[in-house]
Design goal:
The protein is α/β, with parallel strands linked by helices and 186 residues long. It contains six helices and seven strands, in the order ααβαβαββαβαββ. Helix 4 links the parallel strand 2 and strand 3. The radius of gyration is 15 Å and the shape is globular. Bound molecules: S-adenosylmethionine (SAM). The site of S-adenosylmethionine has 20 residues, from helix 3.
Length: 186
């Protein structure tokens, strides 16, 4: 697991450590993520690891209610300031330990799973399956290349999430740099 201190330190040094708001790569990936959502609208969505809320703001336009969380306070302050939308609730917390109790028809795990331990990824999968509505969509988007603090590759994390007959894949988009999948209950 990547330590909580690592992210606190990153955000102490930069407001937007991955340049989510600036890089064309991120903008295009977010556009593809939004275009891959099988439904035009979702009633209730959850986006853990929301950082400064760039994807959050885009998702908010497709959701009646969106819960976005991050364990670090600083990016949440930035996200709250830049997204005044009343349908978005920000909450400080980490997954899987602080996974919400509600049911969601959209759950988005974007650039998150490889920061978690193998055991936490198993728990995140179980929590996602438990809280996903019967016709809900679980979106996975991850960078495919290895990097220093990652506990696994994006491809490995996606393969773990597909393990088991309880989820089936609706969408797959693979590029050299990232993989995107949309899963639903079998
Ligand atoms: C690379 S950013 C991804 C931001 C956003 N999901 C996106 O795709 O643009 C990873 C974020 O995950 C957060 N994070 C790290 N460990 C986490 C955990 N256990 N639970 C929830 N978020 C976590 C970090 O604080 C950071 O803001």
């Amino acid at each position: 697991m990547t330590s909580a201190n690592y992210f606190e330190q990153l955000y102490a040094e930069h407001d937007d450590p991955w340049q989510l708001a600036e890089r064309e790569y991120e903008r295009r990936k977010f556009d593809i993520t939004l275009a891959s959502l099988p439904k035009r609208r979702y009633a209730r969505a959850f986006e853990p690891g929301c950082s400064i809320g760039v994807l959050t703001g885009m998702l908010a336009r497709r959701c009646d209610a969106l819960l976005a969380s991050d364990p670090v306070g600083r990016p949440l302050e930035i996200a709250r300031a830049s997204i005044p939308d009343r349908n978005v609730t920000f909450r400080q917390g980490r997954v899987p330990q602080e996974w919400p109790t509600e049911t969601f028809d959209l759950i988005v795990l974007s650039e998150l799973l490889y920061y978690l331990s193998a055991a936490d990824r198993v728990d995140v999968r179980a929590s996602a399956v438990r809280s996903l509505a019967p016709d809900g969509h679980l979106v996975l988007v991850h960078w495919r290349r290895p990097f220093e603090v990652a506990t696994c590759t994006g491809d490995e994390a996606h393969a773990e999430m597909r393990t088991g007959a309880d989820l089936v894949r609706l969408v797959e988009h693979v590029e050299d740099d990232f993989r995107l999948e949309v899963l639903t209950h079998a």
